[in-house]
# Entry
Amino acid sequence: MPGSFLKSGAAVKGVLPSWAHELLHDSLSARGCFSIGDDDITDEGYTIRYASPWFCDLFQCESSECCGKRCCNFAGYNCMAGNSNTVAKTLGMDVQEAKTRVQFALEHFVQQGKMCRGTWDKPSSGVGYALVLASNRSGEPFVCEIVLSSRSELRTNWGYTVVLHRDATNEVPVRKLLEAACPGGGFDQLVQQQKLRFLRRFISIGIDSRSAVLCFQQTALDMWTGSVIAKARVTAANAQGSLPASEYLLEQDRLSTQQSFGICDCGVTHEGVTIRYASPGCCDLFELDASDLGGARCQKVVGYQFVSRHVGALAAQVVMDLQQVKEGLQVMHDSIIQEINLSMGSWDKPSSHFGCALGLCYKAKGGTFFVLEFDMLSRTEPHTGWPYFACFHRDVTHEVPVKRLL
# Structure
């Protein structure tokens, strides 16, 4: 169908028409009832990172109750999590049978999520569709229609899953769903019939999702970068919060050479951390585009592994033995990785360690080597529960010459 999610892709550009905003209000999915999560679906579903106000209304929950949780463990998605006896009794089923049938529907949902996942740099063009038995805070079960789409946020390269939700109980009663949710019960046929209704409703509303998907792109961008930086500015202004104001000022620009900083995932290997956002100042410092940095491991694009490809030129510039230069680079690399590890901590308890290290970097366009000062810390974004690693940069070659560092 024209303008469908199947044709929207991750690189949608343009100005949002006014009707596209209606998608987030009431046109498609129960008044903007949607969630955004990591593109990391497993047998427990995906990790919820953002829940719209209408999502919270539908499930009668607070955002803090679902964000950071795997959706199949969230009581709203899985009504059997705490209401198994009530549901089974209402439907006249054995408790274990009811649990098995609810799980059958959840497994179909997970299968759809994996189907439309794609990869970090190439999100799938597929759209997942599922029906699950959900419940609200009062324990009332209802059939939830779920539509999944995998996307990549344009400026941060973050792979995310956007999920639309709608109460479809008036079209698919709870009993009808569970009676079909078993091998040979006609579950696939039931889901396909309801999916056709969804597509017809989609067309009748007249929504061009090629443009409407931009709503989610903007929400994702705000969630992963804007909220981090905006929160820093607000807290720095009033000097209140869980961190001292000086650290929030650092996240703005006071200690970071014209806002040269990057925001990364909290997962470190010998290749460093994965860059999710590079500030304009960072791009200027390394003479690279944001697209060159986003989604890449830091040591491969600006650090040890990148510099090592030019080790011959480096040795000639500083007039040192080639092996000696290689050993010096390895020592620097080990020191930086050690500082990153110390700055990490766990998903729920980020480290309070403030890391600092010196490294040697290379500007490919100018063909120059320079000494870089790294200041690093890990934090959890309070609104989304996302643990992130922030790294701040400064060219200190005028203070520590390249040869002296080696």
Remarks:
- Strands lie at 34-38, 48-51, 127-135, 141-152, 159-167, 261-265, 275-278, 355-363, 368-380, 387-395.
- The chain has 17 helices and ten strands.
- Residues 130 and 191 are 7 Å apart (CA to CA).
